[in-house]
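Its record is retained below.
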Amino acid sequence: MAGKRRRKLKSLAETITNYNEEKKDMNELQSWSEIPTELLELIISRLNLEDNIRVSSVCKRWNSIAISVRVANQSPWILYFPKSGNLHEFYDPSKRVTYACEIPELVGSRACYSKDGWLLLYKPTTNRVFFFNPFTQDSVNMPSFEINHQIVAFSSAPTSSECILFSIKHMSPTVVAISTCHPGATDWTTVNYANRLPFVSSIWNKVIFVGGLFYCLSLTGWVGVYDPLKRTWDVLPVPPPKCPDHFFSKNWWKGKFIAEHKGEILVIYTCCNENPIIFKLDQTEMGWVEMKTLAGVTLFVSFLSSHSRTDLLGLMRNSIYFSKVRFFGKRCISYSVDKCRYYPCKRCYDWGEQDPFESIWIEPPEELSTFI
């Protein structure tokens, strides 16, 4: 009799325990479902795109809120320079849309670089150098400067007090001439620097500005660094990335690109018969490391400028976009690191055969309605 009573008490205790646990779970669920909309919007708005998409699958309410605060970065556009006339085209790879407009200010000018929505332009007939924003129509004139076979870049928008123009030209394998200027200056300053390592530059060079420094990729893959504040120049003692012997084509010195993402320096080597190879500069070990993934980052590269993005929608993540469009403006040529193939077709491309001045990536306007 006592044993039977003990079993009943034990069963009753287990029932009460289970009831309390279920009630606790229900209270927790109820507490999550009762989070005020304003607080839930604040929480979800702090998530990156990938986590935002995951959260949107919890329930209809969360889906609605996640979509309302979802922020996807805008990809840069490609600006095409016509061989004649002043009708220029802007291609948006995210929407696969082309916008055409007449920009007479660009006629007879050659694009040198782009950053923050500004173009740095050069008129060979007059040696005129000037900034131009095609979306606001603003321009900033700079002192005249002859640009033949050297590249020119700038650190920030010309409206910034920290804007610095930079140009490099190799005088010999062991000497480079670096010219600098800034908005408001009356002339360029040119200084010759000796190289500890050979550095050969030309219009096929690529430049990025990272952490207050200009990084230059030479024709043969060496990286030079210029500090505009200290006015020092040095070639990093890091041998060029190691590629397969059969990798390079006849235009091996052209099909290289340099980009940066959150301070990381990346180079992309291309070959007409092979898929691109991506390397990251390990600045601690001072060596190149091959990257098998971009971890969701998207690179937009051209001969004149490069950009990087995160939080892009759809299949644009973990890809490299090149400044060329096929199929009558319907598809931008890209390379998927995940799929290890080019799009829109599987064949490889020889980027060394492309005219370096026919197109350039540029930051689009924040408000499209102000441009169209």
Summary: The CA atoms of residues 238 and 286 lie 6 Å apart. The two ends are 89 Å apart (CA to CA).
